[in-house]
Write a structure and sequence with these properties.
Layout (H helix, E strand, L loop, with lengths): L1 H17 L34 E14 L3 E17 L3 E7 L2 E8 L2 E7 L3 E10 L7 E10 L12 E11 L4 E13 L5 E14 L4 E12 L5 E14 L2 E10 L7 E10 L1
Antiparallel strand pairs: 1-2, 1-14, 2-3, 2-4, 3-6, 4-5, 6-7, 7-8, 8-9, 9-10, 10-11, 11-12, 12-13, 13-14
């Protein structure tokens, strides 16, 4: 519990200085404005506008972890969030992981697995700030479905909830935060809670280029492990409703992967 508390306290101390919050990269020449939830662990609070379809894809990611006893890595391709705007500032989302590959090696031992990952159904409700011109707040409810094989995902359905929000600041700066809880299945009738938190500072350097820094942490209830990372990323708008991104998440606790690299894309149709 101490390590998780230290991460949370450090993040709260950094927040007032760096203003970590989600800054929607709205394009001025499109109506309604475009805002992608990716990249970063901090969720976007802006719903996809009614009647619009939006795809947000992690084109590829690679994670690596090494300790004195073992080495592991994972590759993910085309993990995608498909979002559709509903009335009353709701949107419905389906997240799929078409291909995952994991490997683990230790003294005298090697193992790997690959295949389709879990699918997640989500509903986002924006409570304030849907126009992106002031403070924003949203609730997200979701259910992760055990569609993965070869031990690559959850053994049973896992429900969860997220609260997320952001505050735009002066001179292109913005802050955002996310707090979540998920009920993890451990096989049979065993379950435990997993808690997550993320704080982000973002800045628009130009009309097309943005960047962010972030602190993110996940802690489970029973195993008392904290996976915390310091994250960096950048975005590039290549059209009024299209964005490219790339970044790196660096583990700052022993339970987290040492490094996670990713590139992504988001587009509203």
């Amino acid at each position: 519990m101490r390590s998780f508390a230290l991460v949370a306290v450090a993040a709260c101390m950094v927040a007032p200085v760096f203003a970590p919050a989600f800054a929607p990269a709205f394009a001025d020449d499109t109506d309604p404005p475009f805002a992608a939830s990716r990249p970063g662990e901090t969720e976007g609070p802006i719903a996809v506008p009614k009647g619009y379809f939006q795809a947000e894809t992690e084109i590829a990611s690679f994670s690596h972890d090494r300790s004195s006893r073992a080495k592991s890595s994972a590759i993910s391709l085309a993990a995608t969030s498909l979002r559709y705007g509903l009335p009353a500032d709701f949107d419905a989302e389906l997240i799929v992981q078409p291909y995952l590959r994991t490997s683990l090696s230790a003294a005298g031992f090697k193992d790997h697995g690959d295949g389709f990952g879990d699918a997640t159904i989500r509903v986002l409700k924006n409570l304030m700030g849907q126009d992106g011109k002031g403070p924003s707040l949203a609730l997200i409810g979701y259910l992760t479905l055990p569609t993965a094989r070869n031990g690559l995902g959850a053994p049973a359905a896992q429900p969860g909830a997220i609260v997320t929000g952001g505050v735009p600041l002066a001179d292109g700066w913005a802050t955002a935060w996310t707090v979540g809880v998920e009920r993890l299945a451990e096989g049979g009738d065993q379950h435990q809670a997993e808690f997550s938190v993320a704080l982000q500072l973002s800045h628009s350097f130009t009309d097309k280029i943005g960047g962010y820094v972030e602190l993110a942490g996940v802690r489970d209830e029973h195993n008392v492990r904290t996976m915390a990372s310091a994250d960096l990323g950048a975005t590039l708008a290549i059209g009024p409703t299209t964005q490219l991104d790339a970044g790196v998440n660096l583990g700052i606790t022993s339970a987290a992967d040492n490094t996670n690299l990713f590139v992504g894309w988001a587009h509203r149709f």
